[in-house]
Structures are given as C-alpha cells and as structure tokens.
Write a structure and sequence with these properties.
Length: about 900
DNA sequence: CAGCGGACTTGCCGCAAAAGCA
DNA sequence: TGCTTTTGCGGCAAGTCCGCTG
C-alpha cells in the first residue's frame, strides 16, 4: 500500500478509516507529570503492558453506499423518539421594564464603569418570552444533512476493528482485537499500517483485514420496526422531570440557519433544508428574525403553535423566516454572523463575601493574628493540606509569594516552613463534618434557599426563547490549580468584582442590576455577533478571558454542535482524496509539503490534536505540530513510538506502525536535531489548517478527531449489533464508546477505591465458588438419596431435590460469571473516560438512529443533560448514517 | 506573516445526588 | 435502612481556531 497512492484509498480506505489506538500507559500516566517524581514506575505496571493497538480498518465506505440512499428522508416525522426537551418552566419573564437605565456605554470598546441601572431584574419585555415548548426536536436534521447530497454516501460502514490490548488479558470482551494493520494488507491503506504493539510480546498485530469484518452492516434492517417502538415515550424523560430545572427548550421560532461561520458546505446543506422545511428547527432559532419588529409577534405565534402540532407549525414558520427573513439583517451564515437579535438576561451572581472563622494558625508554634483577607488566603491553602499539591514546591512558592503580598513586608510570618495551618485545616474538617451531619430537611432548605437566590440568573431570553445560562456564577477566589507542572500553580486567584465584568445584552434589554450594592459593571455591550453574556479577565492570566455562555442545551449551542458534526460528515466525503493527496506528498521535494503531509497523516490516523504553540507560563504539553524529537522515536523497520504529554498533561503513549515513507520522513525530520527541538520545524497550526482548508472548505485539524470518533462509533456499532437483549446492546455500545475513548486518549484517574472494589468482588466470587462446591456435593448426595452435609458453619440444610439443587448451581454459576464480567469491565475501563467522547465527539444522531433501529430506549444511552444537549438530534431517521 | 486578542470547544475532576446492595 | 457505588453535574483549566494588526 504504501506506495499506493491514491488509488487505493478509495476503496480501501475503508479500512483505514479509523484511527488507531494506542496504548495507554497506565494511569500513572495520567499524571504524568512526573517529571519530577518517581512515580511512574509503579504505575506502569498495571497496564503497563498494555498496548493497545489498534488498527482498524474500517471500511466504511466503500461502496456501500447504496444503502443508504434513502438516507433520510426529509424530516419526517416519524421518529419515534421524542425529543426530550423540555422545558417547562418558563418563567415568567418578567416584565418589561424599561430600558431605562441603560446606560450607556455600549459598545464595545471602552470600558467604563458602568452604570448600573437599578432596575432589577426585570426582564424586559421586548421579547416575548415564550415558554418553551417542549420538545424540540426537530426535524431538521437530517434533512439537512442529508440534503447535501454529497454525503449521501454514508452508507454503511464497515467495521473496524479494535483491539486493544490492554491490560489484562482477559479482559474484555471486546476482545477480538483484531488489528488490522494492514488492512488489506497489501495494500493497505494507510491505516493499516499502523499497528501497534501491544504487549511486549507481540508487537504488532496486524490485522488481517478488514474486509472480513465488514459485513455490511446491518443497518437497515430493523429500522422500521423500531421506529415506533424505539422510543417510548415521546416526551422525554426530561420533560418529565423537568420540573426541576431544566430542561428547557425552546420552540423555535425563527428562522434560519444561520450560523455562520464558515463552512460553506454546511450552508449548503442548510439551505436545502429550508426547503424542506422540516429541518428547520434548530437553526432557525437562531437568527430569528430578521426583522425586528415582527419578531416578537412572530415569535409568539410560533411558540404558541408549536406547542401543539409542532411539526406542522414549524414548517410554516420556517419557511417564513427562513429563507427570506433572515436575509434581512444578517445573513445567516455569513462570516460575521449575527448570533441573535434580542438578548435579555440578569447578569451574573457573585460568591458570598468571605466570613472570617477566627481560627488561628501557628507560626513557629505560636498563634498568629491575621486580618480577614490574610486569613482567607491562609484558609485556601490550609484546606489543600491533604492534596498532592503539598508535594509541589512550585505550588508552595507561588502561594507564598502572593500571600506575602497580603501579609506585608514586616509580618511575623516570613517562611512557609514555619507555618502550621493545621488548626485551620481541622476547623475545615469539622465544618465539613457538620455539613454532612445536617438533617435532610436542613439540607433541603439550604438548597432551596440557594435556588431562590440563583433562579433569576439561570435563564436568558434569546430571540424570545428562554434558554438556560451555563455558568452564571462568578468563580470564587482560590488558589490556582493548574494541571501537570503548571508554572502558575498555587497563585492566588483573586476575587472578581462587578467592576471586572463586562456584560453583553440586547440593546433594548434592561441592564442587569449589579448584585453588589455600591458597585457597578465594568462595561455594557450590545454585541450580537458573539454569544457570551458576560466576561471578565482571568485573574491568573489577565490576557485571557472567562466567559459566561448559554448552557449546552441551548439552541445556540445545539446549532453549532450540529454544524460541527455536519462538517465532520463532509470530511467523510473528502477523506479519500485527502488521504491520497497527503500520501503523495510524503515524498515531496518540498520539505514544508512533506511535513504537512506527515502531520496530516498523524492527525488522521492517530486523532492527534493540532498542537498550538504555548507560552512559557503554561505547562509544557504538545500536540501534533509541536511534537518534539524526543516524543517520537522511530523503531525500524516501521514503528513510531510516541510518548508525550498532551492536553491537560495527559500522557499519550503509543507504538504505531506507519507507512514506509512516513517512517523515513520522520527519521529525516529528526536528523540533526536535539531531543527538545521541534519535529515539525517548518509547521505550525495555522499553516497546517490553511493547507487543510484548501482541501475542503472549513477543514481544520480538529475535524479529524470528530470524524474519526464518529465514524468509529458507527462502524463498531454496525459490526457488533445483532440481536441480544437491551443490556447486551448497551454493552456493545459501551465497547464501541470505549474504542473511541481510547483512540482519543480520553483518560481518567483510577478511583481511589478501585483496588478495594476489585478485591471485594474477588472475595465474593471465592465465596460463591465455595457455595458451588457444596451444592455440587449435595447434588451428588441427593441423587443418591442422601441428605446434604452440614454447611460450613455447622447448620443443617434442607433436603432439596436434585432439580432444585441443579437450579441453585446454575444460578450460582450465573452470579459468578456476572461478577467476573464486572471485574473485567472495571479493569478495562479503569483508566478510560467514556464521557468526553460522548459529549464532544460522537454525533448523537448515530446513537439515536442506532437506538431506533435496535429498539433501545435512548434514555439508556443519554442522561438528562445529554438528552437536552442533543435535542436537535432526536428526530433522525433510523437509517441515518454519519 | 507573526503575534495577539478574542471567542468558543474540549477535558478532567470532585462533590452531591441517585441507585444499588446487604 | 444505612451504607457503598455509580452517575450526574458543575467547575474551571486548557485546548483550537479565527481574524485583525502592524
């Protein structure tokens, strides 16, 4: 293959499609940080060996395409599933109020103090709020997507393989590992090649190819059937619960697609949608309106309608707005993009002021008097006495430097060494215990009190739709906890005050009242090209900002989430060509081209992050473009050993077999360089992304991660889902999810009680085995008409018939099996985090469609938050393919 | 075109609530 | 029913990527 060149790809690629996985070091790794410490060693052990490999192949594609053809139908209604959504609440929006205050400033620049207006909360009216109706869902989706004809292909996929090796031999089920390396070997497409080693022993595995696997996936088969069934209830659970909080969702009103930024492709798609109408949903909301005036009215209307017959309504509405309307103001997707027309919210809530506890710490054994400010910071440190930060000199140094500024030059306290914070630490433990001991009524009352105070900050009304605000609580002061070996760990993160905060709100909306009497906002803006409601400068790094955005369940976020996945789907259409192109460039005479080609290959095959440059005041982590020579070691004949700290200082370790030209290129890139030098010295993320954009509109490095994750999920589900009960299907899904997590290197630290849990399970198994032996003896005796022996503790047992004993034996065996399986799963997932990929990388439509096809309730796969976040995906057709 | 400000997504963790279990 | 284990959820740090500026 290697040589191959493009040609192969195409078809073949299938195989490749998926990225490889790597092994994870062990937990320890995570920490990695290690530099300093010794830790590691141990850790490794566990898994140590593990290697994971992967290979995969996928195939996807391929031809199959056919299948799908139908892909989706335009929205159709049908889907059983319902969307969750929810939202009930609505709250009264408030009344209108006047704009009054307002004040001024607006505009972006400048900051000025603001003014506060006094009004309170009010929300302004302008907008009408509508309550939301529940559900959302919309239709669109697909349609959209589909629309694009291009995608069409999607079809089924093939499989992929997985393999991992990890740890424990027994492990899991999944097991098969197959690696494929080569896909076809011979030809192998790119993907193939990789392989990894896994355990020591066998390094590579290869996979035999893919094809095998591929079976045509079963997709369709069930489709229909399921439809209805699948989703049970229509309303989603969410709704139900909702009462409490959340969920909300909005009806959409308006129009269009919007979105903007980029992506043409998407755009295209969307447009179509409009046509379809169905689709509308999400998108619409966004912009809503073009015309301001109407807006309200329309909105209302919309809302109302919605409630009932949503679909229909939607359509209509959509049409209306959509195409045309938007045009007016802002083009939907235009570059600059207007993100909203009206925005009303109540600002942010601040943490309560510090309450001095008066507990004195000791300095050289003597109690020390501290001012409340000094005590506050001492307490921040004291409560961290039992954390690993106490082993980090940098943390202590940074803390001391900042605390000293508060203590003053001549304070008795001069050195951290002589400080004894334990009185404060003990006080803290006691407080914690007190809290724990509170009766449930007290706890409940406290909770309600808090909710009451926060309620008004929890919601915003964007274009007439009530939406949940994500992080309306201003971050409290504390000591900065950076990850990995962060140079700034331990520094004091000062308290944020209203005068640090810039508010972004609709022009006609009342300015939120500043919650702290006597103070005022830094600035008020009315910028509808951004989605943030407020921001302040990060106290640790004043050049950076902390933003307050709408929650993930909001229409705005949903829209951009959908666009993200549509872009990844578009990549699927271009992937063969892109692979062919970079393969060709492995041997380019132009060194820049060669580096771009190899970097793209790594990003594609290994799902590496782009790797932006970092400042000296950040932890030293790398991504593809910033890999150092020491991070990639070529091991002849064709294996690359990767070992580096990635995002969040999570260690990435993987041994991968690559194509010969890649291997040689890496060797050449390393030539003459030192360990710490950049492997890709002629490259950075902007150059790489600029190149990717030439290959596909809107393409950037991170799209490969989304694409690889989603395509892997789809193909794994296609490979293994075939019958079984719901629990088994859920298990299949979890395994597919795990593969993705491994590919993306989503790790978690091993729970503190992991070991205990495992040994506890083992004890139970041993116990059951003892019981089993006894039962077997009793059975034998029973068959001979003899009574059972006394049990271990001397008790006499009932005389049971052989049939009854056999039944007990079977049950016990089943229990043992179940527990053994539990252990295996636990070990298998001990360092793997499944949540991150589910939240950020897996197109929810794949999951929803799979649930519909297999009659698995979507609630089994998505919790309440995810149901709300993915409301836009709930209506996909069962035969949706990524 | 490098550097930077700016906006938004991704990611791990810990605590609390919920679920499972003896 | 109390305790343990799991799950949900928020917190906030750390990435990506874009567009402007000089």
């Amino acid at each position: 293959m290697t040589a191959s060149v493009q040609p192969n790809f195409t078809d073949m690629d299938d195989d490749d499609e998926m990225p490889l996985r790597f092994k994870r070091p062990n937990m320890a790794s995570k920490s990695n940080v290690s530099n300093s410490e010794p830790n590691t060693s141990s850790s490794q052990k566990h898994d140590g060996q593990v290697g994971r490999q992967i290979s995969n192949a996928n195939s996807l594609n391929g031809q199959n395409s056919t299948v799908q053809k139908d892909k989706t139908v335009p929205s159709s209604k049908a889907s059983p599933v319902k969307s969750p959504l929810v939202s009930p609440r609505v709250s009264p929006p408030t009344s209108k109020t006047s704009p009054a205050n307002t004040v001024a400033k607006n505009s972006k620049p400048l900051a000025s103090p603001a003014n506060r207006s006094t009004n309170l909360n009010q929300c302004r009216s302008n907008t009408v709020v509508k309550e939301e109706k529940p559900s959302v869902s919309d239709p669109n989706d697909e349609s959209d997507s589909e629309d694009d004809k291009p995608l069409s292909n999607r079809v089924g996929l093939s499989k992929s393989s997985s393999n991992h090796c990890n740890k424990v031999p027994g492990a899991s089920t999944s097991g098969p590992k197959v690696v494929k390396d080569e896909d076809s070997d011979d030809e192998m497409p790119l993907s193939t090649r990789i392989k990894m080693k896994s355990n020591p022993g066998a390094p590579t595995m290869k996979s035999p190819d893919t094809n095998k696997n591929n079976k045509p996936v079963l997709p369709k088969r069930e489709q229909n059937g399921s439809a209805s069934s699948t989703v049970p209830s229509k309303r989603s659970p969410v709704e139900i619960k909702s009462a409490g909080q959340s969920s909300v969702k909005k009806p959409r009103l308006s129009d269009t697609s919007v979105s903007a930024k980029s992506k043409q492709p998407l755009v295209k798609a969307e447009k179509n949608e409009d046509d379809d109408e169905d689709n509308i949903p999400i998108s619409q909301r966004i912009k809503k309106s073009s015309t301001p005036v109407n807006k309200s009215s329309s909105t209302k209307k919309a809302t109302a309608v919605v409630s009932s017959s949503r679909k229909i309504m939607k359509k209509k509405i959509v049409k209306k707005n959509s195409k045309y309307s938007q045009s007016s103001k802002v083009p939907p997707s235009s570059g600059e993009a207007q993100k909203w027309t009206t925005l009303v919210h109540n600002g942010v809530i601040f943490p309560p002021p510090y309450k001095p506890h008066g507990v004195k710490m000791l300095y050289k054994g003597q109690p020390v008097d501290l001012t409340p400010e000094q005590e506050e910071v001492a307490t921040m440190y004291a409560v961290m006495l039992d954390t690993e930060y106490m082993d980090k000199p940098k943390f202590k140094e940074n803390f001391m430097n900042d605390w000293k500024k508060l203590l003053g030059r001549n304070h008795v306290i001069q050195s951290l060494e002589h400080c004894d914070f334990s009185p404060i630490y003990d006080w803290h433990l006691k407080e914690k215990e007190k809290k724990k001991q509170m009766s449930s009524e007290e706890k409940k009352a406290l909770k309600e009190e808090k909710l009451k105070q926060e309620e008004k900050y929890m919601w915003a009304i964007l274009d007439g739709v009530k939406e949940k605000v994500g992080n309306f609580r201003v971050e409290p002061p504390g000591l900065f906890r950076g990850r990995g070996e962060h140079p700034k760990m331990g520094k004091l993160k000062k308290r944020i005050r209203p005068s640090d905060i810039t508010i972004n709100i609709g022009k006609d909306a009342p300015i939120p009242e500043c919650p702290i009497p006597g103070e005022s906002w830094k600035e008020i803006r009315h910028d509808n090209t951004v989605t943030w409601l407020a921001f302040w400068n990060d106290p640790i790094n004043p050049k950076e900002f902390k933003y307050v955005f709408l929650a993930a369940s909001s229409t705005l976020k949903g829209q951009s989430d959908k666009e993200k996945y549509e872009k990844a789907r578009l990549l699927k259409e271009h992937i063969d060509r892109i692979r062919a192109a970079y393969t060709k460039d492995f041997n380019s005479k132009d060194p820049v081209k060669r580096q771009v080609a190899v970097a793209t290959y790594l990003i594609d095959k290994l799902a590496l992050r782009a790797g932006n440059e970092k400042d000296d005041d950040e932890a030293e982590t790398v991504g593809c473009c910033t890999l150092k020579v020491e991070n990639v070691e070529p091991v002849p004949p064709d294996t690359l050993k990767f070992d580096f700290l990635g995002k969040d200082s999570i260690r990435y370790q993987n041994d991968v077999r690559v194509l010969e030209p890649v291997f040689k290129a890496i060797q050449q890139f390393r030539k003459g360089k030192k360990d710490g030098d950049d492997l890709f010295d002629m490259l950075d993320t902007s150059k790489l992304n600029a190149h990717l954009k030439e290959l596909m509109p809107g393409l950037t490095a991170k799209v490969f991660r989304t694409y690889n994750a989603s395509i892997t999920l789809q193909s794994e589900l296609g490979r293994f889902t075939d019958g079984g009960d719901v629990a088994e299907k859920v298990d299949v899904y979890q395994k597919a999810n795990k593969q993705v997590a491994v590919i993306c290197n989503h790790q978690r630290s091993v729970s503190k009680t992991h070991g205990v849990q495992i040994s506890r399970l083992n004890e139970k198994i041993e116990e059951l085995k003892g019981v089993l032996e006894e039962l077997k003896i009793d059975l034998a005796r029973s068959k001979k008409g003899k009574p059972p022996l006394k049990s271990a503790d001397g008790k006499t047992k009932r005389n049971l018939a052989p049939e009854a004993l056999q039944k007990k034996i079977d049950e016990t065996n089943k229990k043992i099996k179940k527990m053994e399986n539990q252990i295996q799963v636990k070990e298998d997932l001990k360092t793997v985090a499944l949540g991150t990929s589910k939240i950020n990388y897996l197109d929810p439509r794949i999951t929803v469609a799979w649930c519909k096809r297999n009659e698995v309730p979507i609630e089994k796969m998505f919790n309440r938050s995810l149901l709300a976040k993915f409301a836009w995906a709930m209506d996909v057709e069962p035969d949706f393919t990524f």
